[in-house]
TrEMBL record:
Organism per entry: Heracleum sosnowskyi
Protein's UniProt keywords contain Transmembrane: no
Domain of life: Eukaryota
Gene3D superfamilies the UniProt entry points to: P-loop containing nucleotide triphosphate hydrolases (3.40.50.300)
Family per similarity comment: Belongs to the sulfotransferase 1 family.
InterPro entries per UniProt: P-loop_NTPase, Sulfotransferase_dom
Keywords: Transferase
Start and end residues of each Sulfotransferase domain: 58-318
EC class of the enzyme, as a word: transferase
Protein's name according to its UniProt entry: Sulfotransferase
Gene Ontology MF terms: sulfotransferase activity
Annotated EC: 2.8.2.-
Sections of the chain in a coiled coil: none
Length: 321
């Protein structure tokens, strides 16, 4: 994923050498492009999308900052949209045989020739993608047609997001040596994380969700944990696929929540053993799945500093995390 020996084409190498560069917490280096930090493979994917991606009517994009519950949301959305073709209680449900990343791919990790082969909804005119790309860096083809595409943005408490990322960085075998909590913290606070600064990425989608509530749904990891039924119904309504009375009475909402719960997903073989891409195993996308785990990792000063940055960045926006 971050092999310094990977050869890119000359145009991309020239671009990289013209960009600000910083050591980062997961991969070796990140480059600042249009205000956000990317590893070279991620940046290559972003540029590919910007140049070549053509959205279809009804495409759905799950957008997150890394470690905000992307995998969970992929499962939920997939199960929700495919509930007729794949009832959540069937023994052969795709989520019991495939990792969420195989059912809902990351847009920026696909090559342009793969965009069109994504086929993960009952409606051929609708595809589900996940992405970490900030709204300003999304392909213009998507933002220009937000009237047709829909975005589900999932955010997470910043302190939990950082702690999850820190553990992930050390689980993934991408750096020459483990990263210390202090170094990881400093990078994160400077905004040097994938598609970071995380605050700017969240804020961009928050503003978009306020401007276009029918097109951008802003969700929170913590609310999904506390009131999953309410949030799942909210999601279904937003996508124009509300649960019918019959579905409600049959317990379908609970069944989807249960299929996608941390407990169920971590029992699925492929999520325990499979490989995501070099350096990342599927299991590295599951750790504790809790709210407030930052208390077990951050010092009081670190927590206060993240709170302070969050407060400053979001002041006046109406967004609280
Ligand atoms: P923790 O490291 O705090 O446990 P992402 O999918 O964006 O990479 O996010 C990973 C985080 O989401 C990890 O958080 C992971 O444990 C958690 N997660 C994964 N699946 C989940 C699920 N089904 N329910 C709740 N949290 C989940």
């Amino acid at each position: 994923v971050d092999d310094e020996t990977v050869q890119y084409n000359k145009e991309f190498e020239d671009l990289l050498s013209s960009l600000p560069k910083e050591r980062s917490l997961v991969t070796s280096y990140k480059y600042q492009y249009q205000g956000f930090w990317y590893s070279p493979p991620l940046l290559q994917g972003v540029i590919n999308c910007q140049k070549h991606f053509k959205p279809r009517e009804n495409d759905i994009f799950i957008v997150t900052a890394p470690k905000s519950g992307t995998t969970w949301m992929k499962a939920i959305l997939y199960a929700l949209i495919n509930r007729e073709a794949h009832p959540p209680q069937t023994l052969h449900h795709p989520l019991l045989n495939k990792a969420p990343r195989d059912l809902v791919p990351f847009l920026e990790f696909l090559s342009p020739s793969e965009y069109d082969s994504v086929c993960n909804s009952p409606d051929r005119r609708m595809r589900i993608f996940a992405t970490h790309i900030p709204v300003v860096n999304l392909p213009k083809s998507i933002t220009a047609s937000l009237s047709n595409c829909r975005v589900v943005y999932m955010c997470r408490d910043i302190k939990d997001n950082f702690v999850s990322l820190f553990h992930f960085a050390n689980k993934a075998n991408l750096r020459p040596s483990p990263v210390s909590l202090e170094d990881a913290f400093n990078s994160y606070c400077k905004g040097v994380s994938a598609a970071g600064p995380v605050w700017d990425q969240v804020l961009g989608y928050w503003i978009e969700s306020q401007k276009k509530p029918q097109k951008v749904l802003f969700m929170r990891y913590e609310e999904m944990k506390v009131e999953p039924k309410l949030q799942l119904r909210r999601l279904a309504n937003f996508l124009g696929m509300p649960f019918s009375l019959e579905e409600e009475n049959s317990g379908l909402v609970d069944q989807i929540i249960s299929l996608c719960s941390f407990e169920s997903m971590t029992k699925v073989d492929v999520n325990k053993t499979g490989n995501f891409v070099d350096g990342f195993t599927n299991s590295s996308f599951f750790r504790k799945g809790l709210v407030g785990d930052w208390k077990n990792c951050l010092t009081a000063d670190m927590a206060a500093k993240l709170d302070q940055i969050t407060e400053e960045k979001f002041r006046g926006s109406g967004l609280y995390l």
